[in-house]
């Protein structure tokens, strides 16, 4: 595979998706068809259907292991149908969340075990990991306050309404992943003004995927 796979990660309220959208708006003019932008859970027809089941606020009775398995199933379909073909076609793939989210949210947040969730996803992904992961760091309380103040109530999902203790476990899970895979993670301070976060992210991608911008 000659493409490059970069993921965006962060706790709720870090502004990860908003920053990604702004960065993509800049890059699409430069890269055109060489850029693939996708998300998890989702990214194609089948995975988007699974996403709706996972995040539906009405599904309060969903078992935690069922939730983790659904994420892994959506990821498998996303990988084989969307990500791998793009990488084989020499494209830059930017993905909003990937395996690290499952390990942090279900493994640590749901307390079903980070290693157990990691192994489940190794099966689903055949151990395919991103080239680099851009992590948007923000204190848990700050992130949750942002959600409460700014997010449209219709866009608040099942995970957004979890307890502060849950979100703190998720954050701790991310910290463990960053410590374990410190050569893959690039940390960006998400408490900065949004313009600075966007600029930092743009600079990082230009640096780690410079080959895609040589002719731009």
Automatic annotation (TrEMBL):
Highest taxon of source: Bacteria
Record-listed ATP binding positions: 10-17
CDD domains membership: TMPK
Gene3D superfamilies found in the cross-reference section: P-loop containing nucleotide triphosphate hydrolases
Span of domain Thymidylate kinase-like: 8-199
Broad class of enzyme this protein falls into: transferase
Catalysed transformations (reactions): dTMP + ATP = dTDP + ADP
Protein name per its UniProtKB record: Thymidylate kinase
